[in-house]
Structure formats: structure tokens, C-alpha cells
Amino acid sequence: MIRARPVTAEHPEDLVLAYRRMGLAAAAQARLRESEPHLRLLVTGLGPQEVAFLQSSRATHDVSEALPAWLAGDARTRPGTGLLSGRAEQFQHLVAAARAAGLGLSALASAVAAALAAGVPYPALTLGDRRFDWGARTYVMGVVNVTPDSFSDGGRFASTEAAIAHGLALAEAGADLLDVGGESTRPGSLPVSVEQELARVVPVIEGLRARTSVPLSVDTTKAAVAREALRAGAHLINDVTGFSADAELARVVAEAGATCCLMHIQGTPATMQQAPRYDDLVEDVLAFLEAAVARAESAGVPRGRILLDPGIGFGKTFEHNLFLLRRLEELRVLGLPLLVGTSRKGFLGRLVGGKPASERLAATLGSVAAMAAMGGADVVRVHDVSEARDALAVADAIRRGEDGGELYTR
Ligand code: 8Y7
User: Pairing mode, if any, of strands 69-72 and 82-86?
Assistant: First the structure.
């Protein structure tokens, strides 16, 4: 599989602002933007034929040539890997030349084209009566855990009512959607039966559906649970296995016309934290998520109904989590909105001197604000909705800060 992804965090809009600060006319700005060698793509998975093509087309970093410059990776340890740098126009030439060269180079053409499209905003998503305008701000998914019920019916009723009340409070606090979960996916947790999960989740979905218009997500890996939850009024299925556990799940989502969030996981919740290991972390996550999207699409789920998630804490070490969070933008080559869950997770506890989950709010807000400031996540999954909304209002505004006075507005 050939894959190309931008490796620098240069934002075209920053360049435009620089030109404005220089007082350049609009036409000059557009011309300059075209000629700027601003794009660098890391390419992996190339075969000898593609490497030969890239090598013969460009051997140096001379940007006056028609194609991007090619810098090969180590042929022994990282064969088929390299860096392409050049202007947007040169990358477009490369795509056209690879397409023209025929089938042998079409995978290279597609990978580079996907990377070029990574900065293009994806279409808005409508869930119920809410519209998600990707890129406009960071949206918030509130977590509603349905606690295991006790033996008596009274206990079950109490936990259902508590979950509904909690969901309503989160909606009131500004949640853009709610994620209802009846199966613990914490490290080391064991699966629950379909019956148990249905008994926990469905009454909560029904109760929330009757009392709020906020879109509802269900965190489940089982087709049988998803079917009933969607019937009860849920809009989105949040599958932490990326449609890899239950082959029927993708079809249930497709038939209901529902939306899904497909998450990366290495291993299963019971075993995932024992010895997470990656050859190339970003590469492995991309490959898994691409395969998950393929499973969804072949079952009939349209791309516009898919969100993706790198799965923070799911088969990842402390370092893996930080590495991925820092490189969320590299996952943009998938061309789909990203949902990220860091709320109260273990890596945050370790960063703040071993605080327990109940004392990780400030650490969670730090992670949420950092993601928003870097532009990595479209949706964050959090327990503390009101606090996250405030942190995001600030981080999103800073990220967009463009009005520097008269000089900058022309
Ligand atoms: C995530 C998640 C959990 C996450 C998505 C926890 C269900 C563990 N984490 N779903 N679920 N992304 N999509 O600590 O990161 O909340 S459960």
C-alpha cells in the first residue's frame, strides 16, 4: 500500500497573512502562493518501479523543475520510503504524469492526490436536527456511561434514570452529541452479554430521545445492540474495534442510514495494554483505519457517514499516545473528520504526577486545548462538557486569530 502524507505543519492561510502584512496586492498574493515550495510529503510503501519513476524525474531539490524533488529514504532499512518536496503545481504534475504512465503508477498517483486533498474541508454532517460544519469549531461529544445495574429492578431503574439525567445535564452544558455506553472498554475489562448491554443502553436512548434533540451515539461493538439502539433513536454507532469484531455491524449501520465512528485499536480491551508494539505508529494506524473505511463502504455506509478515531489508550503506550496526538494532522490524508478521546485517560494521570481519574479534569482540558490549537480533532469525546466547551472556545478562537488590525485586513 502506497501512502503519502504531509509532514510539515505549514498552514497556507499563514502564508496569505504574511503576504497581507507585506502589503501585496491580491493578484500578487495569489501568484506567490502558487510558486511557494510549501508542500512536503512523506511517501511510504513504494515498489522499485515507483522509486525509479521518482528518481528519474527529479534528482535534486531544484524547484524550477516540473516535478517535486525526491529524497530517497535508506534503501536498506526503509526501502520504498522517501520525501517529496515542491509546489502544489508540481505535485499536480506528478499526479498527472503517474496517471499517464499507466496502471503501474496509479497507486502512487492516488496516494499523492489524497495527500493533496488533505487540506480541503470535508462536507458537513447532519445528525438529527444538528449540523456539524467541520472546521468551523471543535465539537464536543459527552460521555454517558450506564453503570452496571444491581440485582433488583429498582437498581436497574435507578441506573437508567441516573444516566438519562446525566445525559440531559451534558446536553444542557453544550454537548453537541452524547455517547451512551453499556460495555466497559477500559483496559483489562471483560465483554458483557448482548442481553445485559441492551438492558442498559436501550432505555437510556429512549429516555434521552424523548427529552432532548441532541444526537445520540452508542458505544458498542455488537450488531444486535446497534440494531436496537438505532431503532430506539440513536444516530451514530461508535465502534472501538473499527468494524473488525462483528462482521454484521457495518451492515446494520448501512441499512439504518446511520453514521459511525471507527476507532483504531491494537488487540482487544482485555489484552491491549499488555505489550503495544508498532513498526511505524502513524502508518499502522492509517492502514487500520483505511481497512475499516473499506469494510464500512463495502457494506454500504457512504464516506460522508464515517468519522475516524486514532484510539488514544487502546493498545498504545504513554509515548504512543503523545506521538499520535502530536501528529493528528497526518491522519487528515484519510479525508474524514477525526474524533479523539483523551478525557481522564491514564497517560494524562502520568503527566500530572499520578493523579487518579477523578482528578484529571485540568489535564484533560490541557489535552483538549492543545488538540484544538494544533487543529487536530473535529470532535473531542469528554466527560466534562461545560469545561471542555470553555477550553475549546478559547483554543479555537486563538487558532483562528486573524484580525491584527487595519494592516492585515486587505
Ligand atoms: C474512546 C471511546 C472510550 C475513544 C472513541 C474511556 C468508548 C474509555 N474511549 N470511543 N470509548 N474514542 N471513539 O476512557 O477514545 O472513556 S472508553
Answer: antiparallel
